[in-house]
Amino acid sequence: MGLSKSLNGRRKRAITALLFYLQEGRCCYCRKFLRLSYAPLYRSRHDAATLEHVRRRADGGRHSLDNLALACKSCNDGRGVIDWLTYASWIRNEF
């Protein structure tokens, strides 16, 4: 399923809600529960749900549903240039 170049507004919220349901409200990396909120106050929390590109956009990843997952802000910020599988394995062994 192809999405537009930008994920703004209603489409972003719908995708976020769908992924939250599919992932049972858990981060794709550390598997901790996420806080799903659109209020600016909560977006900077460590457990805030953020959209994550499994294959980084810098590496050619797209805004397609099969390339998106929800991650907590801590994991999303910490991943950097590490590939998804390596980071998920590493972070799950940390906890």
Order of helices and strands: HEEHH
Count of distinct strands: 2
The biggest sheet amounts to:
2 strands, antiparallel
CATH topology: His-Me finger endonuclease fold
CATH class: Alpha Beta
**What count of structural domains?**
1
Count of helical regions: 3
Helix and strand content put the structural class at alpha+beta
CATH architecture: 3-Layer(aba) Sandwich
Shape field? globular
Q: In terms of per-residue confidence, which ranges show pLDDT below 50 for 5 or more consecutive residues?
A: none
Helix content: 25-40%
The proportion of residues in beta strands is: 5-15%
Separation, N- and C-terminal Cα atoms: 34 Å
How are the strands of the biggest sheet laid out side by side? 1-2
Compute the average pLDDT. Answer: 86
Rg over CA atoms, rounded to whole Å, is 13 Å
